[in-house]
């Protein structure tokens, strides 16, 4: 069977009535066997979808007809098995939640830096490098020398920056990055609104960097967390070595997978102590039902994998 196409997409655009866009898009995805999650808001579209290559192209053709989306850029990778369990098209206040309603990436953002020029920027003396992703993402991989805000949610980023603003005020350049680029669009727009001018971000995000920059030239260390069943990818967008704990939704390293506290579908070293026996028994039964459903070629209705496929 041909590999499935996995497509990450986003576009900041003006959607006066995103609710009117939802049903036609959802129906098209269902008709073409496409799964994943697409978020719609007045500020645009964001998501990751997977399916047969021609099916994905039909969905993208439709998205390109939406206001402001004619030249939407996408990032493609491939998977041998479907990385999502269902298709969801959801209405949201923001396509990536920062909680700063006055920030508009269509008005002003930082300077885009293509992957081929990223190493030179972050190697330059005085450049401050900030990873805008959440703590559990940073834990499995980041760029060498990057500052990690240790946020649990992207909406925590503005408060973190304001608390440390003085440390960045005199920086000659601030370089920021995220998984696919969307969080950096808002993060750089936020820093510009805060009065900083020399703000840069990695165009296409980590995924584009790992796709285009050879491993021997890379400044990336570790793996990149992704919001689907692949869990993480590495150079060349090859599937990484991490699993996902279905109890706490955290990535689990190969070392932690060898721990007696890691039980597939039930617990991992990070969450074992915070779950009681009743909870673990419930997780074990859910996991058993999922495996039975998978053997029948079905999707278990109680499946709770991180199918939202878009960062928050």
Characterize the largest beta sheet: strand count, sense, and whether it forms a barrel.
5 strands, mixed
Strand order, biggest sheet?
4-1-3-2-5
What's the gyration radius in Å? 20 Å
Helix content: 25-40%
Q: N- to C-terminal separation? A: 33 Å
Task: Based on Cα principal axes, name the global outline.
Answer: globular
The tally of beta strands, per DSSP, is 15
Mean pLDDT: 91
Alpha-beta classification: alpha/beta
Counting DSSP H or I runs of 4 or more residues, the number of helices is: 10
Uncertain runs = 303-309
Strand percentage, roughly? 15-25%
Question: H/E series, N to C?
Answer: EHEEHEEEHEHEHHEHEHEEEEEHH
How would you sum up this structure in a few lines?
The chain has 312 residues and is of the alpha/beta class. The chain has helices at 18-31, 53-63, 115-123, 135-138, 157-163, 165-168, 182-193, 205-212, 254-257, 277-295, and strands at 4-12, 35-41, 44-51, 74-79, 87-91, 111-113, 127-131, 141-143, 173-177, 199-202, 220-222, 224-225, 232-233, 243-244, 251-252. Mean pLDDT is 91; it is low at 303-309.
